[in-house]
């Protein structure tokens, strides 16, 4: 399954916020110990106007001293008719400055009960002015 995270790290409609030091305005993705909360819309196509099928809700922590890795804990919460109420649970270390990042799918609920597999993330574009990133997520899972 391929889905697209519509990620806004700034502005009035931000879907990612820094929990540890939100007062300075700019997110500190490379600061060791920085913690972020996310609630990104997930769409079936790469266009922002594409049908929304899920939300990516969770946290991630910059967990490497040099800022190169984040530890990711994300629930993909499906809202479309086909999978509504089902989730995929993603957890693991993400090399945040690599072109393609891979993390584990460690579980799921509903239609994805007992899911196992992996997810890859690739940032397709980033607009500095609007703080908008388009992230492609390829999910490979086995479930019962």
TrEMBL record:
Keyword match RNA-binding: no
Entry keyword set: Apoplast, Secreted
Locations listed in the record: Secreted, Extracellular space, Apoplast
Keyword Secreted appears in the UniProt entry: yes
Pfam annotation, one family: Dirigent
GO biological process: phenylpropanoid biosynthetic process
Classification via InterPro entries: Allene_oxi_cyc_Dirigent, Dirigent
Family note: Belongs to the plant dirigent protein family.
Quaternary structure (record): Homodimer.
The protein's role, per its UniProt record: Dirigent proteins impart stereoselectivity on the phenoxy radical-coupling reaction, yielding optically active lignans from two molecules of coniferyl alcohol in the biosynthesis of lignans, flavonolignans, and alkaloids and thus plays a central role in plant secondary metabolism.
Descriptive protein name: Dirigent protein
């Amino acid at each position: 399954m391929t889905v697209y995270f519509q990620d806004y790290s700034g502005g009035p409609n931000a879907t990612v916020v820094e929990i540890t030091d939100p007062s300075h305005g700019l997110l500190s993705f490379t600061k060791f110990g920085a913690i972020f909360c996310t609630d990104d819309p997930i769409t079936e196509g790469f266009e922002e106007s594409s049908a929304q099928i899920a939300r990516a809700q969770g946290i991630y922590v910059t967990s490497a001293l040099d800022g190169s890795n984040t530890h990711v804990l994300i629930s993909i919460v499906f809202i479309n008719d086909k999978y509504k109420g089902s989730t995929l649970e993603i957890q693991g270390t993400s090399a945040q400055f690599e072109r393609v990042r891979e993390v584990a799918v460690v579980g799921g609920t509903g239609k994805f009960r007992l899911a196992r597999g992996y997810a890859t993330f690739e940032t397709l574009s980033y607009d500095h002015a609007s703080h908008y990133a388009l992230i492609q997520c390829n999910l490979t899972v086995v479930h019962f």
